[in-house]
Design goal:
72% of the residues lie in helices and 3% in strands. It is mostly helical. Helix 2 crosses helix 9 and helix 10 runs antiparallel to helix 11. It is a multi-pass membrane protein. One of its GO terms (molecular function) is L-isoleucine transmembrane transporter activity.
Length: 300
Amino acid sequence: MDYGILLMQQILNGLHIGSIYALIALGYTMVYGIVKLINFAHGDIMMVGAYIAFMMITAFNLPLPIAIIISMASCALIGMGIEKVAYKPLRNAPRMWALITAIGVSFFLETLFTILFGASSKPFPTLSLAPIQIGALQISQIMMISIGLSVFLMIALELFIKETKLGKAMRAASEDAKAAALMGISVNKTISIAFAIGSALGAIGGILFAMAYPQIKPLMGVMPGLKAFIAAVLGGIGILPGAMLGGFLLGIIESITKGFLSAFWPDASLWADAILFLILILVLLLKPAGILGKNVREKV
């Protein structure tokens, strides 16, 4: 066995799954950056996006690109609706209340889709694209699409936040919502847009995840959602490039643990998720602000 080739293959696989974690982590970051809320229902928005695309393809025979657009738009509206109904009334309440509400929304979506579609998994239609062979390495075209799309969306989102009037309003609301409101910025509007963008990114992540592992089920968003949260914390939650970096690093670590270390340590794949959560604990202990984050002292 050529361990060098095996390692390179697992790094490529890690970039693939890491790009999906990065997309979902961008959604966490968008919301946290403005309202300082960890939206634990975000992983289930990913699941909803995958199911909407599944219905568009199987029930209405729509092509995949159209199904993705409809899924993104639908999840954006759902995300805005959840914010209005579940989070907005608690905006001035203790943060723990909003966190508990987010967990409640998560359980509600999982239960609703279990009732509607059943608990069993369903095959997700995917693209039949031949992998690209480079020497002994195999690169799937879906992998290239996922990585390219995630990098493109991160750059587009960064430009949107820094260059557009609405993006600058979102940054102002993130810094000081009360001061932004006094300057004429609609804080409610910026928060709704943050939820819409984050939910749309979650929908894309869900579809790409369903294409990589071609099946969907109501609980499919639980572990990817938690891992994307770890990725956001690892890179620096609230920082868009940090979410991207954290997603790719986490994907590579997971893939190497499952596919490379298992060649030397048979039980490595069983420990993969535990290792990822151990990384979260270490980051919180050693550098709570994340790789790209900076520790900021709060004035009392």
